[in-house]
């Protein structure tokens, strides 16, 4: 494959949990070249990122100089920066990437609505793509899209989400988001057929305004799972997503890197580019 | 098969939903003979019970004379009366059966603890078996036994029960019973690893004293389902029972009819004869 | 509701298993009026179809005169004939309905490709809608649509279908159809990562040309279930449909009755009108 | 806890995948003391095993001197050697442990029936416990025990096992073992109700002699899962085990270490000590 067809990719946060995975899949992707690995970890500074990850020499040293790396990447053509860093610094990094003409694919959470609005205006002015992706799981986006489609034909639906017992919050953010997407259909889900009595409080789970129940199971041995169950007389339609490893997010990262090139503005959410 | 080895069976409540199923399976069982069909339904009185059920002539007319039927059954050897009638009359019927020497297999609910105690004493005195079986589902008893066995090795467990949305109570009686069986092990289940926060109240379901969570799902299309999920680091062990039809209770009824013959006293619960 | 907004509906095969369900839901639908009940069953002829079904008087006698019923229905406005009859007669019935200006919604199976082609031409000439629907399950169509959507992003997929043990054929027609829909994407599914060895023949199930495995489970207690499982590193995405009762097909029948009115030609498959 | 109540434990194969996990849980167990870490890995020799594993100093250096370690362990009281090494050397190691009076808990596979017989005689003579455990998963043993219990009451059963697509063999060893346990009941499972036709070969899975079907699903994203489904009219009873991590085997290892102390002979299989 000629170098013209290669997408130069910088990974910001290259030594973090997600960053490491991104480095590996970018290095293996036939249409991408890893050109920069940025991280603040002093122990890795100057070392080859491939050595740090134990996956063989990649000839890209770890650096903490964001600007120099962006300048270098921009010089290699239509380039992309994948950002898995920290809520405190992500705004400045993304703004810098746009300023230097490197398209940001942002997985770091914690940007405020105001910050996203400002980045959108900045990207618009620069006429450069910017992707902010709170959840890179293609499978979960497919589940949510299929959920919305089914919700047109089913009036009854409940959500069960199951996570390991070290997760403190219930329900999970994704389950709440799924229920909110259903709420936005402004359809009265689960019209009651009988007067329900909870003999033990909480048995019927939690509910959002429009009647969608969410049940949260927490057990060791579980990882991250979500089930949406639609019911109608004589039938059930169930959508389930199971995540067992953060490698599951990598196809979404690669897709975002490929889809961002022709974009001219900020887009929020993986569903918009699927 | 010679008639000596046949068990004479009377069905009390023969025209009810459960009674009809019992009549059919008793009539087909090679080791049983249907000798009596008792019901108060005036429309069926005097008709052949096989005609009433639309399953071909059985040469047993529907009668409302309990005593005469018991006398006749007793005359045919070690006989059994299956009772699926009504809470108001079940005590008297069972007492009569014991008095006339016909062994009662009782599926009717509603007997008080006092009444059961009195029947136990009466059966003891008469030295005759009596089975009171609140749930004839062999599958559910197996699930509960396997649950107790697993609970010796797992410290974390949750219950999900799923029923049609015309069920008013939550959790189901069987789910509560299963949780109580776990509670009786006096083991602190589900010791928390983090401080849990319910962002929406009820998300984590209901709990009994010893920490077993029960989640109740209600949807049209569901029938009657229960899942017990055990979790430990790196593994899950799940037991699930699905009921789709009351025919599922018939193997338990046939088992009870066969197991009652050698008994000399009252026994409560299908688990005791499995 | 004024009679103008009511859709006059004839049910052909009104005393059959599916026909009975259709009669009941049409009679209850606020925007439909049952105007004809056709059946060849001599025992029901001339009786009120509501009496035959035991659901209360409907003031529609069972008749075996198809033509007279079609003429009558056509006189009442834009009318529809739902056909659940027999492969031997369905072609003639549908042709007659089109000829008399009554829109056919056809659930009867057994029409040949040639016959469907001829009916399509006939409907086109008459400028009248005709719906041929081999599977009225909206849930299953949703599952198949979501399957095709997911197949764009996942390379690995297997199908498990589970049916009662009185089903003679394996795999089920719907599972084969689902696999064929995947085959038509001309994507090499399930590229092998290792040399597979079947220690017991058949372990890996059946396969269509493009590598989609289908596994068929047959057990009493099962009714009709299908599961499509997509896998990728670190994640699974599972779509499952459970049917427990033929009432599950009725929303699809009602939808077809409503959607056929504006049509001017033959359409095949529920997915086309969803 | 006083040192008398501590069980001295040697891990043979301490730097292997399973050995590492064993070292960690033994070090954390309140009633055990890690006294020896044997491995042939030259890179680790002489280093503290805690440092090798990155879990903090354990003050036990890695050694390749089996005999010296056994002598030392035996000197500390009723001691145990856990062996996760290699089929080529396991026989000699276990024989040595017995000879030196250290109880072997053997997870290494590959011992022949003859070798196991010889070890049994040797342990008997030495009057010392020896546990050979092909599968340390307590959850899977519980599933198999519950399967045998259910098989007394259900005549229909199928097995679905699901593994990642890098597993070359199908069905899995555990699924075959489960089916064999059912076969040993000499019960004709799954008596056919209809003449089955496989429209696609392999659809109905593989079968052992007594009619138990096994279906093997292989997908990335799966780890190791087994489902046993029992069916009867109107009901299903399903047992499922999911393994996501080898940490799931550690409770079985700890149990074996505790249960071996009072034993005087060789025992095969975790089920025997549960």
Automatic annotation (TrEMBL), chains A, B, C, D:
Tell me one GO molecular function of this protein.
Answer: NADP binding
Dihydrodipicolinate reductase C-terminal domain: which residues? 139-274
GO BP annotation list: diaminopimelate biosynthetic process; lysine biosynthetic process via diaminopimelate
Which positions does UniProt annotate for NADP(+) binding?
40
Give the annotated active site.
163, 167
Give the main EC class.
oxidoreductase
Q: Which family does it belong to?
A: Belongs to the DapB family.
Q: What is this protein called?
A: 4-hydroxy-tetrahydrodipicolinate reductase
Q: Gene encoding this chain?
A: dapB
């Amino acid at each position: 494959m000629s170098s013209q067809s290669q997408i130069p990719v910088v990974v910001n946060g290259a030594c973090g949990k997600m960053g490491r995975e991104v480095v590996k899949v970018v290095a293996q992707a036939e249409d991408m070249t890893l050109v920069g690995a940025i991280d603040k970890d002093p122990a890795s500074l100057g070392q080859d990122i491939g050595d740090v990850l134990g996956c063989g020499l990649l000839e890209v040293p770890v650096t903490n100089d964001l600007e120099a790396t962006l300048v270098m990447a921009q010089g290699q053509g239509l380039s992309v920066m994948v950002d898995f860093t920290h809520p405190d610094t992500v705004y400045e990094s993304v703004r810098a990437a746009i300023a230097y003409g490197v398209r940001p694919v942002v997985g770091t959470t914690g940007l405020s609505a105001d910050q996203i609005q400002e980045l959108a205006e900045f990207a618009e002015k620069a006429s450069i793509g910017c992707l902010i992706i709170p959840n890179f799981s293609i499978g979960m986006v497919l589940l949510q899209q299929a959920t919305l489609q089914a919700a047109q034909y089913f009036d009854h639906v409940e959500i069960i989400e199951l996570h390991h017992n070290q997760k403190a919050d219930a329900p999970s953010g994704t389950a709440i988001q799924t229920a909110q997407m259903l709420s936005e259909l402004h359809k009265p889900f689960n019209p009651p057929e009988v007067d329900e009595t909870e003999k033990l409080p909480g048995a019927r789970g939690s509910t959002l305004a429009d009647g969608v129940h969410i049940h949260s199971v927490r057990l060791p041995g579980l990882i991250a799972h979500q089930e949406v169950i639609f019911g109608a007389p004589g039938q059930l339609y169930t959508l389930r997503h199971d995540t067992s490893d953060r490698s599951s997010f990598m196809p979404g990262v690669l897709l975002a890197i490929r889809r961002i090139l022709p974009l001219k503005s900020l887009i929020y959410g993986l569903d918009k580019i699927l």
